[in-house]
Design goal:
Blueprint: E1 9-14, E2 19-26, E3 29-37, E4 44-48, E5 54-61, E6 64-71, E7 81-82, E8 88-91, E9 98-105, E10 108-113, H1 116-127, E11 133-139, E12 145-152, E13 156-163, E14 168-174, E15 187-193, E16 199-205, E17 215-221, H2 235-241, E18 246-251, H3 260-264, H4 273-287, E19 291-301, H5 303-313, E20 321-325, H6 331-342, H7 345-355, H8 363-367, E21 381-386, H9 395-407, E22 411-416, H10 426-443
Parallel strand pairs: 17-18, 17-19, 19-20, 20-21, 21-22
Antiparallel strand pairs: 1-2, 2-3, 4-5, 5-6, 6-7, 8-9, 9-10, 11-12, 12-13, 13-14, 15-16, 16-18
Length: 447
Amino acid sequence: MGADGEPIAQEVYDPQSGRWALRVRNGLGWREVQTVIAPIERPYLVGLGRKGDRLVFATHQDERPVWREVDLATGAVGEAIPLRDDQDAIRDAQDGTLVGHRALVGDEDRYVFFDDRDSAMWRSVTRAYPGQRVSLRSWSADRRKIVVLVDSPEEGPAYALVNLDAGKATWLGGVYQGLTPDDIAPRKPIRFKAADGLELSGYLTLPRGRDGRNLPLVVLAHGGPASRDDPGFDWWSQALASRGYAVLQVNFRGSDGLGEALLKAGYGEWGRKMQTDLSDGVRHLVGQGVVDPKRVCIVGASYGGYAALAGATHDRGVYRCAGSVAGVADLRRQVSHSRRQSGSQATTRYWNRFIGAEDLGDPVMAAYSPAQHARNAEIPILLVHGKDDTVVPLDQSQVMADALKRAGKPYEMVVMPGEDHWLTRGETRLQMLTAVVTFLEKHNPPN
């Protein structure tokens, strides 16, 4: 939409051919100004450009993500603007034009503004919160009143209203009501090398009041896999640390937002080096004396749930229990489901890129499906799943439960009525945490 609320551009994508087109308003019709064949990394419209008569879209150039600016009148495309991982647009509050961009680079939030006055404004805001992660959430049209999210390592995340004219900031409230500094465990970034020498990073949360030696550990694997853990407050790791566990989160190969090299290192490594990156992190902490190698469990959701199940069936000997939340257990079944849901071959291509399979009949699908190897499980397994999950359907956990039952292996299953893939509802999130913590305390007591 333009500043007047009228449509000025549209994007059209054919999921079968992978053809993407950008169209701009041309009288009563539309004129095509850009086309790209992109079966997986399809371009997308970012929005208005630096002026109201321009548009910005994201695409790839020489296999690198870039932004391109298009003149609405002529269709001319400007020079490529290099795009950082997870780069997001910053817009004018009134007319929606692009005034800057932001990205998480490693562990650092970087804000870039096109106007020097905006840059100076943002520096004055962040200086007020040293050592804390500050995110722009909203601002007035004149940029003099700004709502920010301040994520403090000691106090957790809270919203503040900064009034530059008055030279003061007012707290609006915490994201998690009732959270106190005594509830927050210290979390720090870590780096280590995988067995093949690949540099990896992640985060280690240590329980408060413990000396950081010979601790029980929970490996908490993120979803995706093309996602990442970031340096902000993490409710799940904090919940586990509050019960006495150290928590390791690894940005394993295949993670996104940390550079193309790390992402592409995960291609074809689903269930293989993507999995052993997690256990290499365990070995790193064991070597430092931080954790007890006999008291390690693995937990995760979505792809992380798959990693938990694979830890029990494929990467054995590392963990003493595994908890899967909405995890994938049968790869062929999941890829088929995803393709039906999206109606797109691009979905299959995405999965196959990481799994390393040519098609649904590829033997790799069965080779790295935990449900096909339930007989190998030597540790207790917890399965937690939302009944209304449409991303990874409930039957993924049911298939795993049936396979474990046939193999005579110990497992527990919790089905959460009315819940989706993202644990959107607070009461269900609490139900999941309670089930996971109860399971961990039973099979891997923290004391």
